[in-house]
Every structure is written in C-alpha cells, then in structure tokens.
Design brief:
alpha+beta; endopeptidase fold (from Nostoc punctiforme); two-stranded antiparallel ribbon; NLP_P60_dom; hydrolase
C-alpha cells in the first residue's frame, strides 16, 4: 500500500474539475449532454447516435475502465504519474481520469477522498473511486487510520489499482480479507455525479 499522507482535511483543497474541452466533445452541462444525445440521434442517424453514446454516463465509465485495464502490469513507483516510469495509487487514478475523460483530480489519495459525492457500497458503479485506510486498533477495539490508498471500481466487487512497491497495476476484489478490513468508502467525482443527474433528469 502506498505510503501516502494520512487523511487531513485542508481549508483550501483542490476540487475535481471537468475542463470545457474533453477529448470527445465540448461540454457545458450535464443537461447539454443528454439533450445533445437526443438531437444527434434524431438528426444524424446511426453514426451520430453511436458517437453520442460516448457522452453519456455509461460512455464515460466505459472509457475510464478501458484505459485502466490497458495499464495493467505497469509497475508501482512511489510518486509515479506516468506509465513510462510507473504509478503509485493516486498517480494511476489521476492519469486514467485525465487521459480518458479530461477530468483533473487532486494529486493524492487523501485529497481525492475529499471531492465528489459519497456513494454507498451497494450503489457503487464502474468508475467510482474506492478508498482504503491504514489500519490501527484503538483501545476500544475499533479500526482507525487515515486514507492511504485509492483505486477505481470496475464492477462485480472488483477494483483496479497500483498496489505497492514490487507489484504492478492489477485487479483485486473488495471481498479479499486484506482489502475488506481496510475499506474506507467510495466517492463519485462531482463532474461524473452531475452527468448522472443530468441523464436521470433529461
């Protein structure tokens, strides 16, 4: 597990942002996405409809998971931010979100934990961030510790991440005892949550 700083809320924490220009389209709001989908399907036929699918919530998740899976076997490097040199856990997550959908996340797992919408474990979807904490036991027998690891949920209880020194990007399962006792929660980056909301309201 990457030796990142423990979870310490800061007064001025960088927020996740969705740039105006994404690799696949110009986005101004979640409603624009869903409205654009409908217009493309009505005006331009099957080809436009297929293109518009990439702008939906599911399309974004597919791009995220697709890129993440392509990076399997890239080695762990502390502070790593690029596949040519290696990744640490937060560097891997940040790279995938920025390169796949143009979403910029904070630079470490503790600060990534501060942004986005809290997601109940039963409601997690592919592309959500899952977080883990250092585990220490209090005198009352409770687990505690700061956020020290982040991964990308890919569905069916599995997640992809850059685990620790000597290992490479791989898929693991939340039900594994090591991860189950360290699981700290899940978050959906705000821009993704907004797109979900626009799709449901459109």
């Amino acid at each position: 597990m990457s030796p990142l700083a423990a979870f310490t809320p800061a007064a001025a924490m960088a927020q996740s942002t969705l740039p105006t220009q994404l690799p696949f389209t110009t986005v101004t709001s979640a409603k624009d996405i869903t409205a654009g989908n409908a217009a493309a399907k009505a005006d331009d036929g099957d080809d436009a409809a297929q293109f518009s699918d990439a702008k939906t919530s599911q399309g974004l998740r597919d791009m995220l998971i697709g890129l993440a899976m392509e990076l399997r076997h890239v080695r762990y490097v502390r502070g790593g931010r690029d596949p040519s040199t290696g990744f640490d856990c937060s560097g891997f997550v940040r790279y995938v979100f920025e390169r796949a959908i143009g979403l910029q996340l904070p630079s470490n797992s503790a600060s990534q934990y501060l942004v986005g919408k809290i997601i109940h474990r039963d409601d997690m979807q592919p592309g959500d961030l899952v977080f883990f904490r250092n585990t220490t036991t209090s005198r009352h027998g409770r687990s505690k510790g700061g956020i020290s690891h982040v991964a990308i949920y890919i569905g069916q209880g599995r997640f992809i991440h850059s685990p620790r020194r000597g290992e490479s990007v791989r898929v693991d399962n939340l039900s594994d005892s090591y991860w189950a006792k360290r699981f700290a929660g899940a978050r959906r980056p705000e821009a993704m949550a907004q797109i979900d909301a626009g799709a449901h309201n459109g």
